[in-house]
Each structure stands twice: as C-alpha cells, then as structure tokens.
Amino acid sequence: MTLSNAHPNRQDYAPHPLNDPILRLPEVERQTGLKKTHIYALVRKSKFPTPIKLGERASGWLSSEIRQWIQDRIAVSRSRFPPPPK
Predict the structure, then answer these.
(1) Rounded to whole angstroms, how far apart are CA atoms 34 and 54?
(2) 31 with 38: CB under 8 angstroms?
(3) Main-chain dihedrals φ then ψ at residue 71, nearest 5 degrees
(4) 69 touches 32 (CB < 8 A)
(5) I need a surface site. Which of 3, 28, 39, 85 has the fewest CB within 10 A?
C-alpha cells in the first residue's frame, strides 16, 4: 500500500456537506495527535490532505479525508508489525 496524499480532487465523489463536515485545525490536531507545524510540513510533502480555503484567514479539512488518512496510517502500521501468532 502506498501512502501519499491520495486525496485528489475526486470529481466522482461529492459527499453531502452534512455527512462530511469541514474540520478546523484544533479538531484535526485532536483527531490525528499531530501539531500544526507537523501537519503543514506533511501537507507540503503531499503526505497529508490539503486544507480547503474557507476565507481570507480560515481553512479546514474534509472529515472524510482526515478519517481516510488515519485509516491509511493504521494499515501501514499494521502491515509493518503484524500481530504475533496465537
């Protein structure tokens, strides 16, 4: 499994806004356990979803993209360290 910013502009996927809320930075930090500086460093390296510009001084992330990034990290982690045999 490759891990990248695999969240391109999907023209075939348009979730309903109420089902895919936009998360502001404090919530993204809480959900991922990462801090602002590291999040933006990962965005620059295309290893984290790109924020959506909401206004002149506001941005946020789609909840679905953050959930998918977390699931990708779990999958990568589990593939590197499989559970011990029983």
Answers:
(1) 21
(2) no
(3) -60, -40
(4) yes
(5) 85
